């Protein structure tokens, strides 16, 4: 199906372009959300008549997104979750959780604006991209830890999933060659000799 885009859509096109998309994408997403119109003569004339209003509305949304971006860009948020000793979380942090965390800080972000290819399942510091507008994108930092104290230690650069942090032992001490010496004789062999 051919549609006329009413706003810039990433990986698809700019406002006013006529693009060919799959029927389901147009019917289920672009048309109901008012992001596009079916490409026919009546809609082309309607778009040209409303073009100035659409461009002004798009510019207004972009400026609002940029003001939010200036406040939010580069900020760090602490997320406390239960996790095992190795740093593997018992649950995960999904886009919905990120939106709720930002909402608790006073930012209204929809979960579809949060770009997470897969949920966060380990503790540590994670970079999350947020799309505020088709042309405005920012990155926030999520400090996922088991407690606020661990979050502070992670900020200082400490690795909470290393053997030293977990067991209090240097990583080299846990190598197999430190447990077994192939040149040493077995105690039973020494008694027989």
From TrEMBL:
InterPro entries tied to this protein: Ribosomal_bL9, Ribosomal_bL9/RNase_H1_N, Ribosomal_bL9_bac/chp, Ribosomal_bL9_C, Ribosomal_bL9_C_sf, Ribosomal_bL9_N, Ribosomal_bL9_N_sf
Give the highest taxon in the source lineage.
Answer: Bacteria
The membrane-spanning stretches of this chain are: none
Report which residue ranges the record marks as coiled coil.
none
Per UniProt, the ranges with Acidic residues bias are 183-193
Annotated ranges, domain Ribosomal protein L9 = 13-40
Q: Which family does it belong to?
A: Belongs to the bacterial ribosomal protein bL9 family.
Name of protein? Large ribosomal subunit protein bL9
Organism the protein comes from: Ectorhizobium quercum
């Amino acid at each position: 199906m051919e549609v006329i885009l009413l706003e810039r859509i990433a990986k698809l096109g700019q406002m006013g372009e006529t693009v060919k998309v799959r029927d389901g994408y147009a019917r289920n997403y672009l048309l109901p959300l008012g992001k596009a119109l079916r490409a026919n003569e009546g809609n082309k004339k309607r778009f040209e008549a409303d073009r100035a209003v659409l461009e002004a509305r798009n510019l207004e949304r972009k400026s609002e997104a940029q003001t939010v971006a200036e406040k939010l860009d580069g900020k760090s948020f602490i997320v406390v979750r239960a996790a095992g000793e190795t740093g593997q979380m018992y649950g995960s942090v999904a886009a919905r959780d990120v939106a709720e965390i930002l909402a608790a800080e006073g930012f209204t972000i929809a979960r579809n604006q949060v770009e997470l290819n897969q949920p966060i399942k380990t503790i540590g510091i994670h970079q999350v991209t947020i799309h505020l507008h088709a042309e405005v994108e920012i990155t926030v930092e999520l400090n996922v830890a088991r407690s606020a104290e661990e979050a502070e230690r992670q900020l200082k650069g400490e690795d909470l999933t290393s053997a030293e942090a977990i067991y209090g032992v240097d990583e080299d001490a846990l190598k197999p060659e430190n447990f077994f010496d192939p040149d040493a004789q077995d105690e039973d062999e020494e008694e027989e000799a």
